[in-house]
Design a protein that fits this description.
The chain is mainly alpha-helical. It has 17 helices and two strands. Strands 1-2 form a two-stranded antiparallel ribbon. The longest helix is centred in the first third of the chain and has 28 residues, at 68-95. It is globular and about 60 Å long.
Length: 393
């Protein structure tokens, strides 16, 4: 029986395959540059530009076929996307607001969802083309992306004395990146043959980035991530325990990050959860519960909502208020097809991102859609293995 490949050999194989294929090179650059923000938030970033470059070439080489689970997920996403576009058009007509500014119109947000749907589709097309090795490559790229972001916090970073942004434009973006990256690594570690030491090191980097962000949602989600990591791989509990004990007795960057997070949270003078996150807007406008109030035109709530003319700071709250029960049902149907066939451990690994989404609008974050596409791929691979063993799928 052949010996399993070493870590060095795995990395060398991935690099060798990647450099011979321009599509994989562009994909690698996208994953590595996705957490690098140069322009103002809301504008295309370097990673976004790369995925737009990649899309036509991926689509050109696509034969129009996807695996069954991928087809069902994409079809459900397209129904939700159609509802988003129709909602924007109808509310523009009703309110006579025709602007790309989200506070004054409804034409901005559909483009975000179109882009995210494109990312989701491109990832699945790449999987159709490269099969399991695309999953392995992506997980390793995320590992290097996390390490790069971690290393850069000691060289160059943005932010103030209490909250650090890393290479992002806001601390919340850094915290969400840490949560999604940690979840992606845990979900794909086995398929990518990521060594346990590498996985634990990357998880600690993600926790450190969450601490630097001083985001309450990111810190809670990071705690959930660590608990889920222990449930998935019990031996990580021993290693993390030893590392934590080491940090107790040795001066380290984690100590300063923890102190900054504690200071920021202790001095927080924000509103209550419902008002601060904008949930009061849902309670005060129950007439929109069925079909939604449209995602945009936030000037309508300037005098009636605690957050004034800002969007609801919640993924779930945004869905319910902006698209109502009808639109939310379309999105839930999409998630059902994404998660269908997942093991309970894989489902648990989506809990940190879900928890973060309760207090932040994270639906437009590109890494979320990569995570969802990876879940579809892994469910496809599991179903194929069960079929080969003669078990029901």
């Amino acid at each position: 029986m052949a010996n399993p490949p070493t870590t060095r050999r795995l990395i060398a194989e991935q690099l060798s395959k990647m450099r011979r294929d321009p599509l994989l090179v562009v994909w690698a650059l996208f994953v590595l540059l996705d957490p690098v923000y140069i322009f103002k938030s809301g504008l295309p970033q370097p990673g976004d530009m790369l995925i737009v470059m990649l899309a036509p070439f991926a689509l050109a080489g696509w034969r129009g076929r996807l695996r069954p689970r991928s087809v069902r997920a994409v079809r459900a996403l397209l129904w939700f996307l159609l509802y988003v576009v129709v909602s924007a058009l109808i509310w523009s007509l009703i309110s006579d607001m025709w602007s790309f500014n989200a506070k004054k119109g409804f034409f901005q947000t559909p483009w975000y969802y179109v882009f995210d749907a494109l990312v989701f589709l491109v990832v699945l097309i790449m999987y159709e083309r490269y099969d399991e090795r695309f999953v392995r490559l992506t997980v390793w790229l995320i590992f290097f992306s996390v390490c790069f972001q971690f290393a850069m916090t000691f060289v160059y970073t943005r932010g103030g004395t209490l909250r650090t942004y890393g290479l992002f434009n806001s601390a919340n973006q850094l915290g969400y990146f840490a949560i999604l990256s940690g979840s992606l690594l845990l979900i794909g570690a086995r398929r990518a043959r990521l060594p346990t030491t590498f996985l634990i090191g990357a998880q600690l980097c993600c926790c450190y980035l969450a601490l630097l962000s001083a985001s309450r949602a990111a810190l809670v989600s990071a705690g959930i991530l660590m608990m889920v990591a222990v449930l998935n791989r019990f031996r990580t509990l021993i290693v993390i325990g030893l590392i934590s004990a080491f940090f107790v007795f040795v001066t380290n960057p984690f100590e300063a990050a923890i102190e900054r997070s504690h200071t920021r949270i202790a001095n927080d003078q924000s509103l209550g959860l419902l008002e601060e996150r904008g949930y009061d807007r849902i309670i005060d406008n129950l007439e929109y519960l069925i079909v939604g109030a449209g995602e945009g035109g936030y000037d309508r709530y300037y005098y009636t909502s605690a957050i004034k003319a800002h969007e609801i700071h919640s993924s779930g709250g945004t869905l319910i208020f902006c698209y109502g029960i009808v639109g939310t049902s379309f999105f839930i149907a999409f998630l059902w097809h994404v998660m269908r066939g997942s093991t309970w451990k894989r489902l648990l690994l989506l809990a940190p991102a879900t928890a973060y989404g309760l207090s932040h609008q994270g639906l437009r974050f590109t890494s979320l859609w990569v995570l969802l596409a990876i879940v579809v791929m892994l469910n496809e691979l599991d179903a194929r293995e069960r079929a080969l063993r003669g078990k029901p799928t």
